[in-house]
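User: Hi! I have a protein structure encoded as tokens and I'd like to know what sequence might fold into it. I'm fairly new to this, so please keep things simple.
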């Protein structure tokens, strides 16, 4: 019997596998992965020394907890043959936009957890939204969160907020990358090479995020500390205000959340 099974070992499946192996006490011989693509299974089995199969039924029968990390469009094809085998097992779905009730149609007695990670999961730093099915015990929740926190940090929400999670942290890396690129281009305008400017912009965002996490202070408090009277920063901040940066970012999250709602209805 394996502790963990991962169905669909593409980008997200591999990120989850890497996190679990690096940051939990679960060993490679306690994990089994499956995929449609045999070359992909061979690659993962060779790289991580886990068990591999192209048979999802076999994986489910042999696993305690199952991650589902195929594409959302494949849901029916993947779950129809294994729905009954998932009775009373924890099924953690990564499928963007697929509601717990839809998964229930295929796996009525499974204990479903719906998660929305983001791309930094690939480097072990996902911001993951999590929604639990009603039939999950506190002990099972804790076990699940330990797994999810192995590839980043997670926030538990009611399922209706998963679209907001998509609009904020799901799409968030694209917003932050745009900001970093803009900051770097600002440096280029002032004479730095793009390479120098990008290094400085990236480290500035990384360092500021780390400072925020470690001090646990409100962003406005930390910002005020670096904004001296008539200094350079207040001049820069004034331009951001004029350009409505805050307004624009709030609108971006709102618009992406709305689009996520539309997509999950389609
Ligand atoms: N990447 C992200 O940043 C991100 C963020 C949040 C959520 N997600 C969610 O994560 C899921 C996976 O995304 P991804 O980017 O990792 O996709 P991906 O790289 O395409 O991985 C999916 C894997 O599942 C395999 N597969 C397809 N049908 C299967 C089946 N019936 N049984 C077993 N394996 C099967 C695919 O094989 P083939 O290639 O041969 O079809 C592929 O290797 C998606 O549902 C997505 O919504 C991704």
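Assistant: Happy to help. Inverse folding works backwards from shape to sequence: for each of the 266 positions I chose a residue that suits the local structure. Here it is:
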């Amino acid at each position: 019997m394996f502790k963990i099974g991962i169905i669909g070992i593409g980008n997200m499946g591999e990120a989850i596998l890497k996190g679990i192996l690096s940051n939990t006490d679960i060993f490679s011989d306690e994990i089994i992965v499956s995929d449609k693509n045999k070359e992909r299974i061979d690659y993962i089995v060779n790289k991580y020394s886990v068990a591999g199969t192209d048979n999802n039924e076999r994986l489910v029968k042999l696993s305690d907890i199952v991650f589902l990390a195929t594409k959302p469009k494949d849901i029916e094809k993947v779950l129809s043959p294994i729905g009954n085998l998932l009775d009373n097992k924890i099924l953690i779905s990564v499928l963007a936009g697929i509601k717990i009730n839809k998964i229930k149609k295929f796996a009525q007695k499974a204990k479903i957890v719906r998660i929305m990670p983001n791309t930094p999961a690939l480097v072990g730093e996902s911001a993951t939204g999590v929604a639990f099915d009603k039939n999950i015990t506190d002990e099972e929740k804790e076990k699940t969160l330990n797994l999810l926190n192995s590839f980043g940090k997670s926030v538990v929400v009611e399922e209706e907020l998963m679209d907001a999670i998509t609009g904020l942290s799901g799409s968030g890396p694209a917003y932050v990358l745009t900001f970093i690129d803009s900051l770097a281009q600002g440096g280029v305008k002032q004479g730095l090479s793009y390479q120098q400017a990008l290094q400085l912009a990236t480290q500035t965002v990384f360092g500021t995020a780390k400072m925020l996490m470690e001090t646990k202070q409100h962003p406005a408090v930390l910002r005020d500390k670096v904004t001296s009277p008539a200094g350079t920063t207040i001049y820069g901040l004034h331009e951001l205000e004029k350009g409505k940066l805050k307004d624009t970012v709030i609108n971006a999250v709102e618009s992406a959340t709305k689009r996520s709602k539309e997509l999950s209805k389609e």
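A useful reference point when you look it over: The chain has a mean pLDDT of 96. Feel free to ask if any position seems puzzling.
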